From TrEMBL:
This is Putative serine/threonine/dual specificity protein kinase, catalytic domain-containing protein. PROSITE patterns: PROTEIN_KINASE_DOM (PS50011), PROTEIN_KINASE_ST (PS00108). It comes from Helianthus annuus. The lineage of its organism: Eukaryota, Viridiplantae, Streptophyta, Embryophyta, Tracheophyta. Keywords: ATP-binding, Cell membrane, Kinase, Leucine-rich repeat, Membrane, Nucleotide-binding, Receptor, Repeat, Signal, Transferase, Transmembrane, Transmembrane helix. One of its GO terms (cellular component) is membrane.
Amino acid sequence: MSPGMTVAVKRLTVEMCQGVPQFNAEIRSLQRIEHPNLITLIGYYASPSEMFLVYNYLPGGSLEEFIRLKRSSVTGVQTVIKIAFDVAAALAFLHNECNPSVLHRDVKPSNVLLDNDLNAYLSDFGLSRLLPGFKTHVTTGVAGTFGYVAPEYALACRVSNRADVYSYGVMLLELISDKRALDPSFSTEHNGYTIVSWAAMLQREGRMKEAFAVAMWESGPEKVLVDLLELGLHCTEEAASGRPSMRQVVRNLKQIQQAFDP
C-alpha cells in the first residue's frame, strides 16, 4: 500500500470466522480470486483475538445506502440494470469459473459496494464456502441474513449456488421497488409478507405497477420493468430447481439491456 492511500478495513471477531484457521482459509480463497466486479483484498492482519481485512476503498458507499436514498430520488432503469448486471457477473464467476466453485452465502445490498460511477462490486466472502469436486450442494450450518436466505437453506441447511440466486433475486426486487426484504409495511398492510411473497401477489393480481418505485415506473419503459420483475421472481422461486443459474441471469439481463439499444 502506498502512503496516504485510503482503504476500507473490516474487523472480524473470532466468533465470526471460527478462529484463525477459518480466517486463513478465507484469505487463501480471496487472494486467488480476481474479477472486475469483486472487491479487491489488498492485505490483512490476524492475531488470536482480532482479525482485519483490508480492502480497496470505494467512495460510492454500499448498495444498501443507494437503495435507501433511491426512495427520495429518480433512479434510471439503466442504472438499476447496470448494478444488477455487475453483481450477477460476479456471482456467475464465483459459481462457474472458480475451481472449486465458490458460494457467497450472504448476498445482500450491504455486501455490494459502489464506486463513483455506480459500478458494483461484491464484497464479504467471510461466509463463503468452497464446494468440493462436482457436488451440487452441501449441508452446513446456516449463514446469511434473514429475508435473503433461500427456503431450503433456512429450513434444512441445504445450500447450493441456487441459494445465492435466491438472495440475488431478493436484492433485485429491492432495487426496482421502494420496499426492503422485510419491509415494515408488510406486517401491517400485507399480513407479514416478505418482498418475495408481496411481489408474487402483485404479479398474480395483475398489479405489477405497484411493485415499482413510482419514479421508476414513470420513467419506464414498461416492458423492461416487467422483465426485471419477472426475473426477480424467477430467481426467488420456492423450489431451488426452478431458479435460473447466475449465468442465465447474466444472459437475461443482457437481453433486457438490449431493449435500450435495439
